[in-house]
Design brief:
single chain, about 450 residues, mainly alpha, 2 domains, two-stranded antiparallel sheet, 18 helices, binds uridine-diphosphate-N-acetylglucosamine, binds magnesium ion, glycosyltransferase activity
């Protein structure tokens, strides 16, 4: 495999630098990311176990011990690769601003940049993204090492996002949002300055994306699988803009593609080792790191609302989890499905409500959810004694019945993909209806 991959990588890098195409270089770096991560994972596993970074696979006979926190390898390879990517990304600016005569004084782009100046703002945007991803990965490692309590670790990604938000403030400071066409006459304006609220919104995005991936977890391959599907969907959206959209939207979608492609490379290697039956666990490090990739791309690419549409299954899982997250219904340490050793299938896991019942005001809601088949509740003499844990994973099992772990993971990934494609289509159809035009169709 390595024998065939290496020459193709060298070829793509050589071709992309000749074409001055940052996206092509990014594809090559993505391949490098795959190969390096795939080589490293099996070689570091035992060292992770030796220092106590391991977890028990709760859905296997005998609960085998496997390395945890392997997402740290992905994050390290990714960040290093993205550093090497910088000259490729900015090559076109380097050739137009470097003195020395010859063709170096001629722009390689069809449009000229203002005064042919090197775009330091773009570079700082890129570096702040890397800094943000680096601090997020470090905080994720801290979480995997110390197994922090949920109420503390929930806000960790917001700390990791500080470099991003500070550079955003200093560099752009754009806090305007477009007002939908049908409200423009009524409000007598086309956009609204949200000021500090916009920073709150960005901060919420950096908290939501990482945590929402972390709580849609507990089945081999699901954390990394959903991140790969999200990456493919975001790339699909980018490719629509890069092929059909106006030139004004190219920069942000090229930035998005450049960030996401190498992420897909390192994630594909992790998927190989984490898919059923898992040889390694990704750890919270990977969940935070992956979530932050999408938050960064959404924020700096100015399409955070579209990004949130792709996160629809995660949003539903979060809303559905709220009664347990806010302790209205007791929340056990693990809500992953229950494994039955006899048939090797996963069943919905339950939370015991005999000793610690759900809050009184919520009991009618539990009954209603049971009638609507949104949870399964067990009654003894009319009293609620248990209910299924409120996660999308358990809900799939309540609806479709028990199934093997790999089938469960694939079902959720397919659901994520279908919902994402429908969301992208709806976004571009509704965008035109709501705002009078859609960025994608602005050219026509
Ligand atoms: C989140 C979920 C928790 C779920 C856990 C599984 C919430 C509030 N928290 O907690 O309900 O049980 O993720 O990752 O929704 N594990 C497996 N198989 C897997 C993945 C994980 O058995 O495919 C187990 C392993 O023992 C592993 C542990 O889960 O060591 C990792 O749990 P951790 O990521 O620390 O849990 P949280 O993110 O806190
Ligand atoms: Mg986790």
């Amino acid at each position: 495999m390595f024998r065939y991959l290496l020459p193709s990588i060298v070829l793509v890098i050589a071709y992309s630098s000749k074409q001055h195409s940052a996206v092509l270089s990014s594809i090559a770096f993505s391949l490098v990311g795959y190969v390096v991560t795939d080589l490293l994972i099996p070689r570091v596993g035992n060292s992770f176990i030796k220092i106590g970074l391991y977890g028990k696979d709760l859905s296997k006979v005998g609960r085998p011990v496997i390395p945890e926190c392997i997402g740290a390898i992905c994050a390290a390879v990714y960040i290093l690769l993205m550093m090497f990517c910088i000259p490729f990304m900015f090559y076109k600016y380097m050739v137009t601003t470097t003195s020395g005569g010859g063709i170096r004084d001629i722009s390689t782009e069809s449009y000229q940049l203002t005064d042919n100046l090197f775009p330091h703002a773009k570079l700082s945007e890129y570096l702040s993204s890397l800094l943000c991803l680096e601090s997020t990965a470090l905080l994720g490692i801290a979480d995997d090492l110390f197994d922090l309590r949920w109420r503390h670790k929930f806000f960790l990604p917001a700390i990791g996002a500080i470099p991003l938000l500070v550079v955003y403030y200093v560099d752009f400071g754009a806090t305007h949002v477009l007002i939908p066409g049908f409200m423009q006459n009524w409000l007598q304006r086309t956009n609204l300055d949200l000021g500090a609220l916009y920073y709150m919104y960005m901060m919420s995005m950096t908290i939501f994306c990482p945590n929402s991936i972390n709580i849609l977890a507990g089945v081999n391959g699901l954390e990394v699988g959903q991140s790969i599907v999200l990456g493919i969907l975001a790339l699909l959206n980018d490719s629509l803009y890069l092929t059909m959209g106006p030139q004004t939207s190219w920069e942000s979608h090229r930035f998005s593609a450049i960030i996401i492609l190498p992420f897909l490379g390192v994630s594909a290697a992790l998927w190989k080792w984490n898919r059923w039956p898992a040889k390694v666990f990704v750890g919270d490090t990977y969940c935070y790191f992956a979530g932050m990739i999408f938050a960064v791309v959404g924020i700096l690419g100015h399409f955070s609302k579209t990004m949130l549409l792709l996160f629809l299954p995660q949003i539903l899982n979060f809303l559905y989890s709220c009664p347990q997250l806010f302790h209205i219904v007791p929340c056990p340490r693990h809500r992953l499905p229950r494994f039955d050793e006899n048939d090797g299938l996963l069943y919905p896991s339950i939370t015991n409500l005999k000793e610690t019942p759900a809050k009184k005001f919520f009991q009618p809601v539990l009954r209603a959810l049971h009638v609507l088949k949104l949870i399964h509740v067990e009654f003894v003499n009319g009293e609620i004694v248990s209910c299924t844990n409120m996660t999308l994973i358990n809900l799939v099992l309540v609806w479709l019945g028990p199934m093997r772990e790999d089938r469960l993971c694939n079902t959720i990934l397919q659901l994520q993909f279908v919902v994402g494609v429908v969301a992208i289509i709806a976004r571009h159809a509704l965008g035109a209806l709501l705002f009078g035009h859609d960025n994608l169709w602005a050219i026509v």
